[in-house]
């Protein structure tokens, strides 16, 4: 069973010179969460946002901050992102030596814990994390940049993980990130995703288009 569809716009596609205003604009346009892509130029070939920026954005929206960490080693920075105001912290298993420990660490900070699978990482790696995670994120592009094309075979992974979640009986959100637009969104939802990250498709057309873009992504 999937829950109502949530939209988490990736601010990677926002105007970085006006980031506070952009976060307020997507909030007013009806987004559910705010997706913040943190990149270090080492785990992925791009550099973006650190905890100071997350903290600066915090007063601009009450909506959950969904912080996707693409940094390695990741464990050293979990406390800083929690203190900066993250509500959900999502980590890649390849970004540290002990993914189970990282998940426990995030939960001990009072923050919801997510695990992200890169396109080449199998669903099986979640087997012994299902008792603890609050969210599973399937990357439908290789992490590092907005505006890439959706990798089709990730739909099969979403279907497999949807079955694992339903079997677990736990309240786990299934998120998809990368190349989500008005065409791929319904396909990801049909495969079992219930949280859609969308950067390009949310921010295209500027602030006056955000509400319509979010509504269309949701399927309305
Ligand atoms: C990629 C990021 C995504 C990205 C999505 O590493 O995790 O959140 O910004 O961008 P679009 O929606 O443009 O594919
Ligand atoms: Zn992301």
UniProtKB/TrEMBL annotation:
CDD domains according to UniProt: RPE (cd00429)
PROSITE patterns, alphabetized: RIBUL_P_3_EPIMER_1, RIBUL_P_3_EPIMER_2
Cofactor: Zn(2+); Co(2+); Mn(2+); a divalent metal cation
Cofactor binding, note field: Binds 1 divalent metal cation per subunit.
Keywords from the UniProt entry: Carbohydrate metabolism, Cobalt, Isomerase, Manganese, Metal-binding, Zinc
Domain of life: Bacteria
Signal sequence residues: none
Coiled-coil regions, chain positions: none
Active site location: 37, 177
EC number(s) reported in the record: 5.1.3.1
GO cellular component terms, A-Z: cytoplasm
Binding site for a divalent metal cation: 35, 37, 68, 177
Reaction catalysis annotation: D-ribulose 5-phosphate = D-xylulose 5-phosphate
Molecular function in Gene Ontology: D-ribulose-phosphate 3-epimerase activity; metal ion binding
Pfam name, any one: Ribul_P_3_epim
BP GO terms, sorted: pentose catabolic process; pentose-phosphate shunt
Pathway terms, separated by semicolons: Carbohydrate degradation
Top EC class of this enzyme: isomerase
Record: residues binding substrate: 10, 68, 144-147, 177-179, 199-200
Family: Belongs to the ribulose-phosphate 3-epimerase family.
Function text: Catalyzes the reversible epimerization of D-ribulose 5-phosphate to D-xylulose 5-phosphate.
Protein's name in the database: Ribulose-phosphate 3-epimerase
